Fold this sequence. Notes:
Elements: H1 2-18, E1 21-25, H2 40-43, E2 53-57, E3 59-63, E4 68-79, E5 82-100, E6 103-122, E7 127-136, E8 141-153, E9 156-166, E10 172-175, E11 183-185
Antiparallel strand pairs: 1-2, 2-4, 3-4, 4-5, 5-6, 6-7, 7-8, 8-9, 9-10, 9-11
Amino acid sequence: MKTHHHHKAALCRGWIRKIKVMFIFLTPMVLTTVAIAGDQSQANGNLTGDEQIQIVADKLITNDEQKVAHFIGNVHASQGAFIITSEHLEIFYQTVTVAIGEQTTRQESIKQVVASDNVHVDTGKYTAKTDRLEYDLETQVIVLIGEDSTIKSKKNILTGSKITIDRKSGQMKVESQPQQQVKAIFYPGQNTEKKE
Length: 196
């Protein structure tokens, strides 16, 4: 009998360890705007957060005083076709006042997303790999930090230790560490995006 109870308790502990934390933002957040180098429908700052952001991780720690949610372990964040995977993901948020008709209401709004440790991004149009991703939603600037940070579009590849993407202007800056150089591989006919 004791063996049965011991086995049942061990099984229960095993399941508890395997439970994933799921955190869903239903407010109009805009993680999709992290799409690398611009989807012109959102590059002008018109943020459409119609789809919910869903984050799954092994563990979640929140701090309401510091207004941060920290997801730890096997993190998978998605909104529609846009996906970030990493070992750590921090969501920094703020309280904002939103006008709805003649009434106002207070909502939590994401101001910065920071992903770190084995970061992979897939926008459906671009993929990226880096050690750390920082995205400021107010300025719409994305920074990929880490040796051999890479952005890939079809066969075209950009590599550097710091890649900064300005979503508003569409400008991209690739930097390297001292004694290293940035790398770019382009294939004729692959660069289909036009700048106006």
